[in-house]
Amino acid sequence: MKNVPSRLAAIPETPHDIAKAFAVGVFIGILPGMGSAVALLAAFVFRLSKIATLLGSLLTNPWTVAFVYASSYQTGKWILQHRSPVDWELITSFRTGWPAELGRVAPPLVVGGVVLGLVFSIAWYGIVRWIVTRYKDIRLKRGAP
Predict the structure, then answer these.
(1) Spatial separation of the C-alpha atoms in residues 61 and 113, rounded to whole Å
(2) Structural domain boundaries in the chain
(3) What span, in angstroms and rounded, lies between the C-alpha atoms of 19 and 25?
(4) Per-residue pLDDT tens for 65-105?
(5) Which of 8, 75, 102, 117 could make an S-S bridge to 112, C-beta 3.0–4.6 Å?
(6) Sorting pLDDT into bands at 50, 70 and 90, what band is 2?
(7) CA dihedral sign of residues 107, 80, 118, 47
């Protein structure tokens, strides 16, 4: 099985287009409640590489989602100066009142997700563009298509 950089380099598009699609996937993956299906929809709508967009969205996966959402919430909480404590037990137990409590969590989570999504998608754009450019140059020097 090929590794991710070589899969990205095999996409018949420019390094800019591949990195742009990957960055869009990263941004969508970081947003709360979004995922691979939304990333693929965005790829179709904006005519991006479906593979690169999907791979970018998969950076947020079951192993990283808790860290991503906690970081998003803390970032949004800091930006919005959200000081009131959240009853996480109420939210996770689904007792009476959990939707209202979840509604208090949503604004910092979304704001933080947008901010972190922008930061990480810009960073991943640069990383992926550099990697794909290097791989495509190496393949060209070897005479590979």
Answers:
(1) 15
(2) 4-142
(3) 10
(4) 889 988 999 999 999 997 777 766 766 666 676 677 677 78
(5) 75
(6) low
(7) positive
Residue with tokens 């947008």: 114
**Torsion from C-alpha of 54, 59, 63, 69, nearest 10 degrees:** -110
Collect all residues with Cβ–Cβ distance below 8 Å to 49 and sequence separation of at least 6. 11, 13, 17, 18, 21, 43
Q: Which amino acid is at 15?
A: P
Look-up of token digits 């990195």:
19
Task: Output the six-digit token pair for 51.
Answer: 């593979």
DSSP conformation letters of the chain: ---HHHHHHTSSS-HHHHHHHHHHHHHHHHSTT--HHHHHHHHHHTT--HHHHHHHHTTSSTTTHHHHHHHHHHHHHHHHT--S---HHHHHHT-TTHHHHHHHHHHHHHHHHHHHHHHHHHHHHHHHHHHHHHHHHHHHHHT--
Tally of CB atoms within 10 A around 12: 8
Question: Which amino acid is it at 68?
Answer: V
Token pair for 102: 């979840």
